[in-house]
Specification:
The complex is a heterodimer of chains A (311) and B (294). Chain A has a domain of 212 residues. Chain A has 311 residues and is mainly α. The relative contact order of chain A is 0.19. Chain A contains 14 helices and 2 strands. In chain A, strand 1 and strand 2 form a beta hairpin. In chain A, helix 2 runs antiparallel to helix 10, helix 4 crosses helix 5 and helix 8 crosses helix 10. With 294 residues, chain B is mostly helical. The longest helix of chain B has 32 residues. The chains are: A mainly alpha (311), B mainly alpha (294). At the A-B interface, helix 5, helix 11 and helix 13 of A face helix 4, helix 9 and helix 11 of B.
Chain lengths: 311, 294
């Protein structure tokens, strides 16, 4: 089912078990953040791993998803599911416009374009104080009740919702990669001129992948806004775009579980090393360089290579 | 008061000057990026951080060694360039055989390390650097008042841009560099030490960023984030102009700075994003960039 290999299926079961036991062992808010960032990173990994495009502006979709969700829930009293869906749609819509522009160029130019376009969103978030709250962000977003009935004020109830979204995201991404569509995408990454000569419109595939990645970022950002109750410039800035690339790189580009592990490690570093201040940035930069120089497969990628099975 | 296009003339000229100054920095940085990209095939994401280090070295030379602005103008690019040379030989040269994106990722990490270290020592608000005595004061041009230092920055940037253009397009060393960009193996076969040429190119490119940093030190607060916003804009400049030619980088840099300055007069909220909007428009009309071939 979903095109899982045996090792991947075992991995999925282990992950489900970990997600179930998690909140009783670790701080639930921390785990919810990890799952949100994991969803975000899975989208970025679709771009980097499946079709080989590096985006340095994914935070635009993540942050804007969070802002739209927070605004709708806080100012208009919409229920969380509406906010999260709206966040995903916002990401997808923004991704459709930016992706349409960015896919005109390749590789490094693509990366620089995504970065520059994301800056527009950042400046918008800084300035439009009625909607985004500028420097203050949107504070005190109520968790309210799912479908208007199931209260999410309890951390475990919120955790259950985030876990469902996260696991559904894992299955969805895996399904996309292993669908006939995903096979064409892979063909384009391997040899684009050949895929084009076979009649595939490669830019359409790139565009769709870009939109899916942006939609996942939007859902992730919206969910995170619901969990934390705030949405600020941190989530929409260039630093967040860099973080998500680091998660994918560290975990393993093109693997299923890599971005999830990457998210766990990077969020854990921010949580548990926060007393070190800016040294965390230095450590992240060092990991970045180490991954590029000596550890390009990433943790899960290396494991998969040793076990000779995709993970 | 003289009005031009419904705006007071001094305001208009003042913004034009600011635009040209910003354009000077865009031109100097995108030129360095283009030179490095030409030979190394990597986008130096740490270019903004090198600019920032150049400014901090300027500050450090004065505060620790008592060496003023004019010394910094020579020493800071040399120090940062030497560091760049070592960096290329020890770290960056390891990734030439890899996918082009790894260069971007590697230098991204490098930029994070440099920014983080400086933030630890100087905090995010940074330090301030005084305008050199010789260049302080204000000049009355008749139609506007111009701080002498700002005029100097424009003047210096123009010389730096011309000198770099001349060195690359008109000298023997530049011809060698261009030849190595076209076909490194052939140039190596002629007995040129290409790896050293590559390291020197990287050193030159980051030295240029440091030189821009020296010029920026008296203008802006010297802080760890000073290169970040700038480099994002410079990337857009590079996308617009393409990295094919030095002249193109210079023209695009100054042109966009001026557009930014005027936007600030007529629609202030737009000035922060106008460069990115121009980039989007260029992508629609000429996806390869104004001076780009591919």
């Amino acid at each position: 089912m979903f095109g899982f290999s045996k090792a991947q299926a075992i991995g999925f079961l282990i992950m489900v078990a970990a997600v179930a036991i998690g909140p009783f062992v670790l701080y639930p808010i921390f785990l919810m953040q990890v799952m949100c960032f994991a969803l975000f990173a899975m989208g970025a990994n679709l771009l980097m791993g499946s079709i080989g495009l590096l985006s340095l502006g994914q935070a635009a979709y993540f942050g804007m998803g969070g802002y739209v969700c927070g605004y709708l829930v806080q100012s208009y009293g919409f229920t969380p599911e509406v906010g999260i869906i709206a966040g995903g749609l916002t990401g997808a819509a923004l991704g459709a416009v930016f992706g349409w522009l960015a896919i005109r160029r390749q590789t490094i130019y693509f990366a620089m374009i995504t970065l520059a376009l994301a800056q527009i969103v950042y400046f918008f978030a800084v300035q439009d104080t009625d909607f985004t709250g500028g420097e203050n962000g949107i504070q005190g977003i109520p968790r309210s009740a799912l479908f208007g009935h199931l209260s999410l004020n309890n951390d475990l109830a919120m955790y259950a919702l985030v876990a469902v979204i996260f696991l559904a995201g894992v299955l969805f991404v895996h399904r996309v990669v292993h669908s006939p569509f995903g096979q064409v995408v892979k063909a384009i990454r391997e040899n684009e001129p050949r895929a084009i000569s076979l009649g595939y419109k490669s830019e359409h595939y790139k565009w769709i992948i870009f939109i899916i990645a942006a939609a996942l970022a939007g859902v992730a950002g919206a969910t995170k806004a619901m969990v934390m109750g705030i949405e600020t410039l941190t989530d929409v800035g260039a630093a967040a775009s860099g973080l998500v690339v680091l998660m994918v790189l560290l975990g393993g580009i093109g693997t299923i579980y890599g971005p999830i592990l990457g998210a766990l490690v990077v969020v854990a570093m921010q949580y548990y090393l926060s007393s070190f201040g800016a040294w965390v940035t230095v450590i992240q930069g060092a990991i970045f360089m180490a991954c590029v120089l000596v550890f390009r497969r990433g943790v899960i990628g290396e494991l998969a290579y040793r076990l000779k099975t995709p993970l | 008061m003289v009005m031009i296009l419904g705006k007071p003339a001094p305001l208009l000229f003042g913004q034009l000057l600011l635009g040209i100054i910003n354009g000077s920095f865009y031109a100097m940085l995108s030129m360095g990026l283009a030179i490095i990209f030409g030979l190394l095939r990597i986008i130096n994401f740490a270019h903004g951080a090198m600019f920032m280090i150049g400014a901090f070295v300027t500050w450090g030379l004065f505060n620790y060694l008592g060496l003023g602005f004019w010394w910094a103008l020579i020493l800071s690019p040399l120090i940062v360039g030497a560091a760049g040379f070592v960096l290329e030989r020890t770290v960056i040269q390891r990734i030439y055989k890899l996918d082009i994106l790894y260069g971007l990722l590697l230098t991204f990490g490098l930029a994070q390390i440099m920014g983080g270290v400086m933030e630890n020592y100087f905090g995010s608000s940074g330090v301030s650097y005084d305008t050199p005595d010789l260049l302080s004061g204000v000049l009355n041009l008749g139609f506007m008042y111009m701080p002498v230092y700002r005029g100097f920055v424009v003047f210096a940037a123009a010389i730096i841009c011309f000198a770099t253009w001349f060195a690359i397009e008109k000298t023997k060393l530049g011809a060698l560099l261009r030849a190595a960009t076209e076909n490194p193996a052939l140039v190596q076969a002629f007995g040129v030490n290409v790896p050293r040429l590559i390291a020197l190119t990287f050193a030159g490119g980051v030295g240029l960023a440091a030189l821009a940093g020296v010029l920026a030190a008296p203008l802006y607060s010297v802080n760890p984030g000073m290169g970040d916003d700038l480099i994002n804009t410079v990337f857009a400049v590079v996308v617009i102009g393409g990295m094919g030619s030095i002249g193109g980088a210079i023209l695009t840099g100054f042109g966009l700075g001026i557009i930014e300055g005027f936007t600030d007069v007529f629609y202030p909220p737009g000035s922060a994003v106008v460069v990115f909007v121009v980039m989007a428009a260029v992508l629609l009309a000429r996806p390869a960039g104004l001076f780009g071939k591919a």
